[in-house]
Amino acid sequence: KYLDIALQHISDNVLENMRRHITGQETRELLAEIRRRVPGIHIRTTLMVGFPGEGEKEFEELVEFVKEQRFERMGAFAYCEEEDTYGAKSFTDDIPDEVKQERLSRLMAEQEEISLSIQESKIGLEMRVVVDREEDEFYVGRTQFDSPEVDPEVLIRKTVPLKKGEFYDVKVISALPFELMAEPVI
To answer: What are phi and psi of 178, to 5 degrees?
Structure first.
């Protein structure tokens, strides 16, 4: 129950400039349909700040969209002009880097609060995880909602021996914005 869908933005103006061929409303409808068809799905997306044409109004719309959608997994980056791309050929990169970085920080701060809330809702739940590696104090695993190397990890207390690559049931005992703490269910 995991879907990675790079949405980039929600403002119709910015989406049009990006040539995304979808509107903000169509994006919202698509997400609602996905969540309706797959209850409990975790959606990962990537968003961009600072694309040419993104004014304060468009950025605020993006922040509100993130608050509204409460993405389980989200990454973001600041626009950086790349030679020979449509954006570079068609628009002037006129948003100062400091503004882009401030917007990026603000957007990710919103997501961190959302992520913590979602993670905390899992405390007390039993979940199936696959163990990816062993560290000094913990086994490190992931759930069906986590892509390797980009999503939160589950840190499993070493109360019993576990094997890398095997699946185990664990109980979530605490949460951080981007990690769950768990113990094996024996």
So the answer is: -130, 20
Closest to 43 measured CA to CA, from 8, 69, 81, 79:
69
User: How many other C-beta atoms lie within 10 A of the C-beta of residue 74?
Assistant: 21
> Beta-carbon neighbour count of residue 175 at 10 Å?
20
CA distance to 39, 66, 77, 98, 100, per residue, from 109 (Å) = 27, 11, 13, 16, 14
DSSP 67: H
Can you tell me which residue has the tokens 């992520």?
Answer: 115
pLDDT at position 186: 82
Domains located in the chain, CATH noted: 2-120 (3.30.750.200), 126-184 (2.40.50.140)
pLDDT mean values, one per 10 residues, the chain (186 residues):
96 96 98 97 97 96 98 95 86 94 98 96 97 96 92 95 97 95 94
Predicted confidence at residue 156, as pLDDT, reads 98
Torsion, Cα 33 112 66 8, to 10 degrees, reads -90
Which tokens sit at 145? 């909602």
Whole-number pLDDT of residue 115? 95
